[in-house]
Amino acid sequence: MSDNAVPAAPLEPPVPITKPVKATGLHIGEPAPGCAKVDPILVVDNVRRTFGGLTAVDVDHVEVPRGAITALIGPNGAGKTTLFNLLTGFDKPDDGKWTFNGRSLAGVPAYRVARMGQIRTFQLTKALGLLTVMDNMLLGAKGQTGENMFRALMPFLWRNEEEQNRAKALDLLTRFKLDTKKDDYAASLSGGQRKLLEMARALMSDPTLVMLDEPMAGVNPALTQSLLDHILNLKAQGMSVLFVEHDMHMVRHIADWVIVMAEGKVVAEGDPHEVMKNPAVIDAYLGQHHDEDIGEDPDAEIVHVSAVKELLDDER
Amino acid sequence: MDWGAIFNNAAVELISPTTAAYALAALGLAVHFGYTGLLNFGQAGFMALGAYGYAISILTFGFPVWGAFLVGVGASVLFALILGIPTLRLRADYLAIVTIAAAEIVRLLFTTNTFASVTGSANGLSGYKNEFAALNPLADGSYGSGPFENNAYDTWLRIVAWSIVIIAALLVWQIMRSPWGRVIKGIREDEDAVRALGKNVYAYKMQSLILGGVFGTIAGMIFALPRAVVPSNYQTTLTFFIYAILLLGGAATVLGPIIGSMIFWVLLSFFSGFMARAVEAGWLPFMTSIQAGQLRFVLVGVAIMLIVIFRPQGIFGNKKELAFVR
Prior knowledge:
The complex is a heterodimer of chains A (316) and B (326). In chain A, β9 and β10 (265-270) form a beta hairpin. In chain A, the strands form two sheets. Chain A has a six-stranded mixed β-sheet, sandwiched between helices. A four-stranded antiparallel β-sheet of chain A has the order 2-1-4-5, covered by helices on one side. The relative contact order of chain A is 0.17. Chain A has helices at residues 80-87, 110-115, 133-139, 159-175, 191-203, 221-236, 248-254, 272-275, 279-286, 298-313, and strands at 40-51, 54-65, 69-73, 95-100, 103-104, 118-120, 209-213, 240-244, 257-262, 265-270. Chain A is globular and about 60 Å long. By secondary structure, chain A is of the alpha/beta class. Chain A has two domains: 1-127 and 202-316, P-loop containing nucleotide triphosphate hydrolases (Rossmann fold, 3-Layer(aba) Sandwich), CATH 3.40.50; 129-188, no CATH class. Chain B has one domain (3-322): Orthogonal Bundle (ABC transporter involved in vitamin B12 uptake, BtuC). Chain B is built from 15 helices and two strands. In chain B, strands 1-2 form a two-stranded antiparallel sheet. In chain B, a hairpin with a 6-residue loop joins β1 (142-143) and β2 (150-151). The mean pLDDT of chain B is 90. The chains are: A alpha/beta (316), B mainly alpha (326). The interface between A and B is large, with 42 and 31 residues.
C-alpha cells in the first residue's frame, strides 16, 4: 500500500453528517509517548520483537484507554501490525509483558486472548469463504456446548443454545445490512461486505476490546460511512476500540486518542487534532529533512508541502 | 466373450468387504482432507496399524476379538498423536510430508526381519479369522442370490463391514452439522480466523486427525478379514487409491466416499475381467495377459480423470462451492 500520509486520493472523503461525540479527559498529565491513562484497558511494557537484525517493535510503555476509540497510526513499516499480532497472541515477542483488564497476556495463546474478550480482525479479510454468512457468524459465539466433540453428537444438548445464537446473529446481520445474504457463501460477498461480516462476527462474542487492523483498506467510499458508524456504535455500546488505519480523515473523524508509531517505537500520543501538529509525527511521515530543500525533486517537495497543508487545514 | 461373467464379477465388488474397507478409509480421509483440510497422505499407515494390531493381538497374545479391536484403535490414536503433536502447528504441506513418511516407516517396521516372529515379515500373517468366525450367529449355508450369494462367513463379514460403514457415515453426518463440524470447516477455510474467534485450533485438528485415523484403522481390520495381512498391501499406492475414491465421490461429503468406493471397485473389476478375456480372445495381439492385468489401472485412471475434469466437485459435491475455489 502506498503511504497514505499523503492523502492524494481523487475521491472526496465521506463528509460526516453529524460530528461524533469525542471522549475527552482520557490521559493523566501531558500527552507524551507512554503517558498514563485514567482507566487503561491495555497496558504494554517493554515489548520488543526483532526479525533477525531488524527491530520491528520496541515499545517501552503505552496504555490504551477504556471506553474510547484509539487509533494506532504510523508510516508503513512502523510495526503497527506486528504490535497487533503480539498483543493478540498471534506472534511471540522477544521480551516484554502486557496486561489486558489487569490480567497478564504474555505467553497466552491467541484463542485464549480472544476468549478473554479481546477480539481482533485482520488487514486482509478472513471471511470463511465456503461457509455461509450465518455459519461465519455462529462461529463467533463463545463457549458453545456443541463445540465439544462428544457433545456434538447429542444435538439435544446444544439445540437451544444454537437457536439463541442464531437469533443474535440475525440481529447483528440486520444491523450490518447482511441479513439478506445469510444463506450465501461468504465467498460471494464483496470486499466491503466481508469487512462488515468480519466485524459483525467479532461482535458475536461480546468483546470488551475490539482490535481492527485497517478496517477501511480496500473498502469503497460508499461503504466507508457505514463502517465508520459501526465503529462509533461499538463505543456507544461500551466497548473499547483500537484500530490501525492509514486514512487520516477517518482517524480525525472518529478517534478519541491517537498513538503514533515509527520505526517500532511510540513517537507521539495525543488528541487526534493536536497530535498531527507534533513535529515528531510530521518527521515520522515525511522524513526528518522534509523542510530542507534537497534541490533534486521539486515535485516531491510540492507534494510534501501540500500534505502538511492538508493536515493543518483539516484542523478547522 | 462371456459378458455375463464379467458383469457378475463386477457386481460382486459392489458389496464386498474390500469395498466397505475402502469406503470407510475414504470416509476417514473425508474428515481429514474434505472437512478439516488436513493433507493426510498416510492413511495406508493407519490401515496397516489396524490390520496388524488386530492380527498380532489375536495370534501372539490370544486376545478376544473386541480386545484386538481396541488394540488396533489404541495404536492408531497413538499414531495420530505422534504425527500430530509436531506437525499440526505447522503449515498443511508439512503434515503431508510427515504422514507419507510415517506410513512408510510403519510398513517397513512390519516388513523387517527383526520382528519376523511377531509380524511374519514380508510373508505377513494369516490364520486369525477363527475368532471372528466364531461370533457368527448365522447357520451354515448360502445366503443371498446371484452375484451376491455367499457362504455364512462371507455374509457375516459383509453384514458387519457395511454396518460399521453405515454407523461411521451417520456419525460423520451428525458431527459435521454440529457446532463442532462448523469449527472444523472453519479451520479448513482459514485457521487464523478461527483462532481469532477463540477456538483452540490445534486441539480441533488433533481430534479430527484421530477421528479420521480411527476410521482408517477399522477399515484396515475389515480389509484384513477376507485375506491375509501382507505388508506390501499397505504401500503409498493404497493411500492414493483412497484419495481417488474420495475425489470421485466428493471430498466434503458423507455419501461420496461410499459410492466412490463402489464405483472404483466395480470399474476395477470390470476392466480386469474385460481385459483378461479380450487378450484371451485375441483382440489385443500386441499384449500379454500380464500387461493386460496392469492396463486396468490405466483405464481406471482415465475414468477417474474424466470424472474429475467433467465433474470436479465429485459425484455428491456441491457445484456452487467450486465457483469460489481459489
